[in-house]
Write a structure and sequence with these properties.
- By secondary structure, this protein is an all-beta fold.
- It has strands at about 15-20, 25, 30-35, 50-55, 60-65, 75-80, 85-90, 95-105, 115-120, 135.
- It has a four-stranded antiparallel β-sheet, with no helix packed on it. Strands 2-8-7-4 form a four-stranded mixed β-sheet, with no helix packed on it. A two-stranded antiparallel ribbon has the order 9-10.
- It is rod-shaped and about 95 Å long.
- It starts with 16 loop residues before the first strand and ends in a 37-residue tail after the last strand.
């Protein structure tokens, strides 16, 4: 006698939707990955089930193996150019589960654009005491704010750079 899993009760439990690769660079190329294991009401793995995947926050579902094999597994990879958390939804038989993946800013493309270098205090008296101030926001090629970047300030025309917070925080400043 051969046992066949019950495809009518096929579902993905919360424990069976997992992140297998996380913290990809948000460059539109590097991937995160998720895996769904489809089981029936008795916990048996179900083959031949079509799983669909979707994501939010600008993430794109790229490679999908959406029909489960004998192991009940379906997989998907995701890319994004938006740093932050993206919720991935896996659906089978109208039943869905979600899991979050993270994309991180691309420090290899970190830059300060002209629009992101701003004067925050100006017109100080040239008396050696009063100060002007500038602020630099470091972003990657996709416009995501980049943390942990060292910013070096310099000035000309006899001005001296005094107080410097030289490493960017999560806000890119």
């Amino acid at each position: 006698t051969t046992f066949v899993a019950d495809g009518m009760t096929a579902e993905i439990t919360a424990a069976n939707l997992t992140v297998t690769a996380n913290d990809a660079v948000a460059n539109g190329t590097t991937t995160n990955a998720v895996q769904a294991v489809v089981t029936d009401a008795s916990g048996n793995k179900v083959a031949g089930q079509t799983v669909s995947f979707s994501a939010n926050n600008g993430a794109t579902v790229t490679t999908v193996i959406g029909t489960t094999g004998a192991d009940g597994i379906a997989t998907a990879t995701l890319t994004s150019t938006t740093a932050g958390s993206s919720t991935v939804t896996a659906t089978v038989n109208g039943k869905s589960q979600t899991v979050s993946v993270s994309f991180v800013a691309d420090g290899t493309t970190a830059e300060i654009t002209a629009a992101n270098l701003t004067v925050t205090a100006d017109d100080a008296a040239a008396n050696g005491t009063e100060t002007n101030a500038v602020q630099a926001v470091v972003t990657d090629a996709s416009g995501n704010k980049v943390a942990g970047q060292t910013v070096n300030f310099s000035a000309n025309n006899g001005a001296t750079v005094t107080t410097v917070i030289g490493t960017t925080g999560a806000d890119g400043i």
